[in-house]
Amino acid sequence: MKYVFLIFFMTLLPQYAGKSLRRDDPKTFEDIKNEIAGYTDIAKAIIDLAVHGKAQNRSYGRLAVFADTIGPRLSGSKNLDAAIKYMFSALQEDGLENVHLEPVKVPHWERGEEFAMMLEPRNHSIAILGLGSSVATPPEGITAEVIVVASFEELHKRAQEAKGKIVVYNEPFINYGETVRYRSQGAVEAAKVGAVASLIRSIASFSIHSPHTGWQNYQPDVPRIPTACISVEDAEMMSRMSFWGTKIVVHLKMGAKTYPDSPSFNIVAEIVGSKYPEQIVLVSGHLDSWDVGQGAMDDGGGAFISWEALSLIKDLGLRPKRTLRLVLWTAEEQGGIGAEQYYQLHKENISNFDIVMESDEGTFKPSGLGFTGSAKARDIVKEVMTLLQPINVTDVYDDADGTDINYWMRDGVPGASLHDDLSKYFWFHHSQGDTMTVQDPNQMNLCAAVWTVVSYVIADMEEMLPR
């Protein structure tokens, strides 16, 4: 009898070649494509509501009221406290679920009064913005001759000349990632050669006499000297003067203070999943900003389209299978302090995080997503992006970018960041120019649509993205 069964089984093999005989076959990529295609109507409904319907311009309007009312939101400041209280109430009033605050200890630095004056070869007021964590000058200020360099390499070659002087860096802007090291390390490198202060050409691709601030880092074994950013125009002017052999003398006065760390909060709100509530799709932006401008672009726009994603899904009566979680980070500008503490608190559940998404490079005209993850996950995300063909935002770029989601991506969680037109982003970044005037309501509508379609579809698919 056993031979009869064996013959029968062998006759079935050609029929089932390449197929599992189990009932619960794993999904093929073609199955996943078909599943994603099934979201076409929902994606269109999201786009219509965000771009053409009742929610049109909503994220812009919400942000305008917030930015105009609260203003800039530096870590440790009363303005940031007010912003957190404002958003906590707003998210509750919007009817989102599990709205709560998660405590964080954040740096508290204040710039105080600051100014710089060129005394030789003529009197000229230099526009400055002290860099985060900078120490103050002595109460009477610092008056010293200037040495202008274009790079760290030049500084080290001229180390003997730099002792007792103010180092002015006139480094050319290549791109933010490469050039920002002069802001973060400029004071340390100047102090190593005995300089008394450093002034750094702003990390900006365009300037109208506008200094741009940002965080900088001291080293424990190197003297701490005052440091600030100056405008591109003043850096280039002093570079020309130096080339001609003109002696330059500057008086610098800075009243910066660093206080003990202050209590703050990450803000969390959710739409709880209908089938796998323990699994998380996280959308985010940071609520803090620098103490200049309004923090409308960096990162008000990213925070408010992340809120808008949950609002649009709620308005359409949708409830994805997984929990869609909004996190508004605190103290991102100081190096992702709020995000790091959130990661430490939640990393024990890392296997339940499906994807982490952060928008922190403006909300200008979008072109797609930056994505970090496995090749299989990337192929799935590419299919999800085809749902955005109605607004022509379908590209997937290498590598997601976001200080606040890096902790998760380093541990293998897929990550995504909004990819938009950055041609003018660094005109306004960390400057007085970062105001609501930079924002465009139509572009924010498109960004909100992208953010919502991607987050909803990934949250509602039957399977998590492959690691």
- Alpha-beta classification: alpha/beta
Helix percent reads: 25-40%
> How many individual β-strands?
16
Shape: elongated
Number of helices: 16
Euclidean distance between termini CA atoms: 47 Å
- Gyration radius from CA atoms, angstroms: 26 Å
Round the mean pLDDT to the nearest integer and report it. 94
Strand content: 15-25%
Please provide a written account of the structure.
There is one protein chain. This protein has 467 residues and is an alpha/beta fold. The protein is 37% helix and 24% strand. The chain has 16 helices and 16 strands. The protein has helices at residues 2-12, 29-37, 40-52, 58-70, 78-93, 152-157, 159-162, 176-179, 181-192, 232-244, 296-315, 337-346, 375-385, 406-410, 425-428, 441-460, and strands spanning 97-110, 114-120, 124-126, 128-130, 142-149, 166-169, 197-201, 227-230, 249-254, 257-271, 276-286, 322-329, 353-358, 366-372, 395-398, 415-420. The strands form 2 sheets. Strands 1-10-12-11-13-16-14-15 form an 8-stranded mixed β-sheet. It has an 8-stranded mixed β-sheet with strand order 3-2-9-5-6-7-8-4, sandwiched between helices. Strand 14 (366-372), helix 13 (375-385) and strand 15 (395-398) form a beta-alpha-beta unit.
